[in-house]
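WARN no homologs supplied; continuing
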Amino acid sequence: MKGISSFRRYFQNSFRRRLFGAFLLCSLIPLLLSLLVLFSAIRGSRKEQVVREGRESLKLIRESLIEEGDGITLALQELSASVSLQRALAEEFTEKTEVNRLLFSLTEGLRDTVRFDIYDKEGNLRYSTVPNLESLSLPTDWGILQRARGADSPVYESLESPYSGSPLFQIVEAITGQGEGRDGSKKEIQGYILASLDEEAFRTLLSGKYGMQNGILLLSSYFTRVYSENILRPTELLSTLRKEFLQGKQLEDPEGEFIYTVSSVEGMGLYIVLRQEKPISRNMGFLMLLLLCLSILFGVALSFLMGSMMSRRLFTPIERLRSAMREVTLDHLDVRLRESEDELGELAGRFNRMTEALAENRRALLLNQESLLKNQKELNEAQIRMLQAQLNPHFLGNTLDAMKWMGKIHQIPEVAEIATDLADILRFAISPKEFVPLEKEIDILKRYMEIQKIRGYSKIEFHLNVPENLQNARVPRMVLQPLVENAILHGISSEGEIELCAEEQDNELRILVKDNGKGIRKELIGPYTPPKEDLGHHLGLYNVDTILKKHYGERYGLTILDRKEEEGVCGTIVLAVLPLQRERLEG
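OK structure emitted
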């Protein structure tokens, strides 16, 4: 930690060192990243190619083995079903021409790789596709013939033989007679048909399907070797990789030069192991690593040289600029730097102009102080005059009360009613409370609608749809009246319906003012945006949207909707959204 701290202080105490370090990093990091990306791309591309080739080779090998196995099974089944063969094995006549003709006919196309032998029920060889065989026999009380005796389908068996030409894989089918056995439970065994594949057969069958540079290893269901090609010491390899084969993963051999992929052949009891060279061999990896290290060393040397030159070139003008700025902090505004044609020279020129401007501004500031004091005095006097010119709201309230009593005395109820409503609205508007219950806002809105009906809007019907549990919701004062007034002036004019709704959604209060008027232009639909010109036509909406955003933030405010799109009724909906807050009950 002490060494790291000293290294950090070494760069922090000098701008030149930090500049040099920055140049060094800026040149080295792209180089290192480019080399690493190139190395990873080459390795990844090669690995993907090897994996793809391995899948294709395994698919071809597996299909070839399954196709060969299906062909052999079909030939065995046709032979075992032959009546002529059954009679020949049962009657033991010496004429073999007809049986051989049948045997060679049904095994056409398979004899190049597969040897077919027919044994009688005692296990003696009677017929074969290989001529001039000596008298052979197989035991029937153990081994593959014994397992075929109790099987209903062909039996597969893998062999491991050290002798060239010996069978490596066999398929046997039992030949049963037409009648039942002596115990009456099963058809009697007449003989056996045995198909054998040796090393040459597998070589011919799999040739050209796994690549010249790759190796192939066939294993039995007990993971013993059946056949291998291009793999040295397969037995030693099996002892190392046997546990991992069951997982079907790509494996590396102990020497790290190859990867192995395992696939099973269902029904035949075989496993295919494909050996492929690694995408990048050990020698190639060492060479690429050496090249990477040499490139890094060359880049470090070049970056060190260029960083040293650039930092020295940049540091000298910056040191002059630092000294000049120190003089400016001491109020020496007459300091100047030498200008040149490069960027640092341009920076020096701007510093010179800045100091000249500072000096000029200081002179102008001294001259304008007296003017500023005079202007402030005049501004204070203007504010006093504005305050004196404001009307007294209480005086207006008292005047409206006098109008109310005059209307009652002279029996003009409309004057009394409009004066009463207007006085209540005025007192509510000048109340010091910024927030009121929604119930109080609705009460003031009712008085406003009474005034509108007296003024000539008697054909406008006003409906309320506010749940009881939202009556105590806390809202800013005087936000509903401008919305309803906007619906009257710009929505329905003199005749129609206005509905005020309130609802709770996601802990938010949503207030909707709906009208069935002429609707609204499409360009106004969406979140409310004040018009750039002629704000007076929608001043109420602008004020309400501004109040909501100032109190609650930009995510709240007004949204204008087309009622026809929302509810299928012509008209406009103005939606006000604000947080749902409850008014505290007094007492």
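The longest strand covers residues 167-180.
OK
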